[in-house]
Predict the structure.
Amino acid sequence: MTATATPTGDLCSMPALLRRNARAFADRPAYREKEYGIWQSWTWSEALREIEWLAFGFLALGMARGDHVAIIGRNRPDHYWAMVAAQMCGAIPVPLYQDAVAEEMAYVLGHCGARFVVCGDQEQVDKVIDIQDQLHQIDHVLYHDKRGMRKYDHEHLNWLHDIREEGRASHYRHEHELALREAELDYDSTCVMLYTSGTTGKPKGVVLSNRNIIETAKNSSEFDRLGPREEILAYLPMAWVGDFIFSMGQALWNGFCVNCPESADTMMSDLKEIAPTYYFAPPRVFESQLTSVMIRMEDAGTVKRWLFRHFMDLARRVGPAILDGRKVGLVDRLRYAMGEIAIYGPLKNTLGFSRVRVGYTAGEAIGPEIFDFYRSLGINLKQLYGQTEASVFIAQQPDHEVRADTVGVTSPGVEIRIGDSGEIFYRSPGTFVEYYKNPESTASTKDEAGWVATGDAGFFEEDTGHLRIIDRAKDVGKMADGHMFAPKYVENKLKFYPDILEAVVFGNGRETCTAFINIDLTAVGNWAERNNIAYASYQELAGHPRVLETIKAHVEEVNRSVAQDDMLSACQIHRFLVLHKELDADDGEMTRTRKVRRGIIAEKYADLIEALYDGSDSVQTETEVTYEDGRKGRIRATLKLVDAATVTPRHHEVAAA
């Protein structure tokens, strides 16, 4: 059975879709979770039963219509079930980032006024308890994992299993009320509230309706011909709109199986075991996977390294063309087939991508070199452009029209226009209802006609109709000589190298561009071990002369690449430094989705930026850091500033001639 047309009548909510799946796909797997090394599985009919019992338990606790129910923890069936159970009760699920510090959590819980908090484990419970004196509205804290919880005060603290069992035992008392509340749900009922990452300020609560999620799930599923036999791995933060649309919206619309890994540490092995057919990851995940591949290749024997480089050179040349069905010579096809046996197939199997039919990356731009690497292996990796406020999808790449420099065509049901300033605007069935308790921001973002300002700058290619994103509109500027400044373009090229974890480029209003670099401790540490280079800390390794020379070579190679782009050739990096610490969300330097907070970094490291431009050879600095246990500390360092060679752009050479 395939999904029906636009939902009407009884298919206008997540619980309604769940009930349809329990009828249509009763014995097909709906959820899997790996626990203690063993995959547990629930069919759609079993999932409905578990969710109903949980909803009965919520009613027994006094959950009211319109209550906000916070969900904090890693991806696991119980947490997805809690969201649907809350919706059945007429309540609104609000997933939070599990790595959020107590202060961030306090803001979101206080802002939405959550009465119920569902926690994954003791760590999350402890954070809620620490801030409860600030949040007097919390009535019940529920937890999934009971380890370490025995000696806690359980007056307002309950094991989720007990709540479900209570609902199971008392279902006769609550069946009528639950049916009544479910019947009240319609297309305009709130489906979920998701908080933005807060790149420039406090996070905003994005209210998304059933219409937003279901219409977007339907349209995007038809675009990629998704069906009930897809397999996905649910490992991205549940608070992120990407996970909600894939693991809730599309999963319930299509009736496919959601697989939850055992832990973050086992994610890669779990990915390999599941071998999903439909996969989504932000660029950072693909960058990390590529880094691990390159590290393993450096440790491999001479013959294996030669084979890898030989066949990867071939793959980069013909792999994307074969994937897109373009004409490729017979000899190259035969050589590529040999590469599939020797290199590409085993590598895809190791990465867990052996069955991927559709793969997406989004959240921020991916480096073209990284993107091309995966497509050269025959993996149908595509880009999409989206936002929380759009229920994800604004533009996406059709099969056989995939390029690294665009985000594809307008998604089904979406309209896009480009403003006079180059800013992108859209409207669609997925357009959010409002920012919760923030009418001013709602009005400034969405006009009366439903057009939403994305804050991104871009343009449509006239010949292809594909959308190209330049950068965040607020980040795009001009150099002192009037040339365009687009930092993300250069940063993504830098992050292609396994040695480079993060980069922040400066240059708006300046004569030249400079950069901060974060090394990847795993990759560079592996290199140091192979070369018998001792180091005691990240700071010591980051400042090692040979590391600086390697990073300099990467920067200069990026400069040569940037020089080929007539529009952005002025963004070559003239000087850089390798930071003495990793940029960290706990220190406010990045969001929980690993987006750089440029304003905070520019203010916090103003002395380092100034040193990059005043000609200094080195600079002493002292920085406050947050340790894993929440304690604050300070680290001091002397950083070396490195000059990098630049290249005269082609159009300058022509003009001079």
User: Anything to note?
Assistant: The first helix runs from residue 14 to 24.
